UniProtKB/TrEMBL annotation:
Keywords: Blood coagulation, Cell membrane, Disulfide bond, G-protein coupled receptor, Glycoprotein, Hemostasis, Membrane, Receptor, Signal, Transducer, Transmembrane, Transmembrane helix. InterPro entries: GPCR_Rhodpsn, GPCR_Rhodpsn_7TM, Protea_act_rcpt, Thrmbn_rcpt. GO terms for biological process: blood coagulation; phospholipase C-activating G protein-coupled receptor signaling pathway; positive regulation of blood coagulation; positive regulation of Rho protein signal transduction. The keyword Nuclease does not apply. This is Proteinase-activated receptor 1. It is a multi-pass membrane protein. Disulfide bonds join 165-243. One of its GO terms (molecular function) is thrombin-activated receptor activity. It is found in: Cell membrane. The chain crosses the membrane at residues 94-115, 127-147, 167-188, 209-234, 254-282, 302-326, 338-361.
């Protein structure tokens, strides 16, 4: 296969196919050397490879050197460079290795944490409720990781059908957005508990926390509905059936993902930054007669706040920032690099085992409950989890 392909007819409209690495956008675009000839708009299908750039909304004209041609019904061919990328070591071995690590660490930790929160802790304070739902989100996502691992280790050849591909694609976004929103809610709850302990008692009730969690689930599911309506699988020559690596290029998708990144990440990021910054400020600026009696507790709380904020930014900031930048770049005819996004996806998935380590196992009360649950040791004075 060569880098040059021929024009392909498409009677379904003026949609354009494009290649991308999970999810939904290709970030490895570079300068285009494509020349153009007069082709009627709406009669061309173009698969953008990882080495080319294009103006998303500009009508193709004077095109003589396309990158994807329709070789048979419902089958398309990619450039050799694109095929090598989809079947290369990074996609088929390195990334699955990280996902396997996340699966074997995240699954037992989140399952154990979920059982502890639901069965062993009787007093359901807001912090416990948020952590319970966060553990549930991480647990559900880890259960779907084997499908992603099989797909990439199978040289990017999806064998589970269109419905399963749409499910795992939507699940990734639902997991990411639900985790972000729950972390934001947790940061607000801790801010109220530290800065306004007495006035916030009426707001920080178990019932209201449950309502908030239901709203978080509804918002996260609503953000993934468009992904369930988009065709996610395409048959590619020399690769097989891709899942979410080749999509129809539409203007609405660019605006959709720009909105999702803004609403589900940048807004919660600002709230979380302000909340934890305020928590650290309040704890480190207490009067001397109050600070001396609980200096150890305050120090641990500050370290915990910094750690949680670091995980929030490390896991989800790269994915959403690159996604937003790429959408803006495509609308203006620019280009972006894709290898960074591959790393960002792995960082985002790392939250499934970092969440329990920070939120749950960072608490001595929670460790006692888990220890008694699996008979590591007998606890003499069991306590309930405090909402620090």
């Amino acid at each position: 296969m060569t880098e040059t392909s021929e024009t392909a007819e498409n009677s379904s409209g003026d949609m354009v196919l494009y290649l991308e690495q999970y999810p939904v956008i290709n970030f490895a675009l570079q300068e285009s050397t494509t020349s153009y000839s007069d082709i009627p708009p709406g009669n061309m299908i173009e698969l953008i490879t990882t080495s080319e750039a294009f103006n998303t909304f500009r009508e193709p004209s004077n095109c003589t050197d396309l990158n994807c041609n329709k070789t048979q019904q419902n089958s398309y061919s990619l450039s050799e460079k694109s095929v090598n990328f989809l079947k290369g070591l990074l996609v088929t071995r390195i990334m699955p290795s990280f996902y396997i690590i996340f699966l074997f660490i995240g699954l037992p930790l989140n399952a154990l944490a979920f059982v502890t929160f639901t069965c062993k802790i009787r007093e359901k304070k807001p912090a416990v409720i948020y952590m319970t739902h966060l553990a549930c989100v991480d647990l559900l996502f880890t259960l779907l990781l084997p499908l992603k691992i099989h797909y990439q280790m199978n040289a990017s050849d999806w064998v589970f059908g269109e419905a399963a591909c749409r499910l795992i694609t939507a699940a990734y976004y639902c997991y990411m957005y639900c985790s972000i929103l729950l972390m934001m809610c947790t940061s607000l709850d801790r801010l109220l508990a530290v800065a306004f302990p007495i006035p916030s008692l009426s707001w920080r009730s178990a019932r209201k926390a449950t309502y908030i969690c239901v709203l978080v689930w509804l918002l996260s599911l609503a953000g993934t509905v468009p992904l369930l309506t988009i065709t996610q699988t395409f048959k590619i020559k020399d690769v097989g059936v891709t899942c979410h690596d080749v999509l129809y290029q539409k203007e609405m998708y660019m605006y959709l993902f720009s909105f999702l990144s803004s609403f589900y990440f940048f807004l919660p990021l600002v709230v979380t930054l302000v909340s934890y910054s305020t928590i650290i400020y309040v704890l480190t600026n207490k009067p001397d007669h109050l600070a001396s009696s609980s200096s150890g507790m305050e120090r641990r709380a500050v370290i915990m706040a910094i750690a949680v904020l670091s995980v929030f930014v490390m896991c989800f900031a790269p994915t959403n920032i690159i996604l937003f930048y790429h959408c803006v770049s495509l609308t203006t005819g620019g280009s972006s690099e894709g290898q960074y996004y591959v790393i960002a996806l792995c960082l985002g998935s790392a939250s499934v085992f970092l969440d329990p380590l920070l939120y749950y196992y960072g608490s001595s009360q929670c460790r006692e409950k888990i220890s008694s649950l699996i008979w590591w040791r007998k606890t003499k004075n069991p306590t309930t989890l405090s909402n620090t």
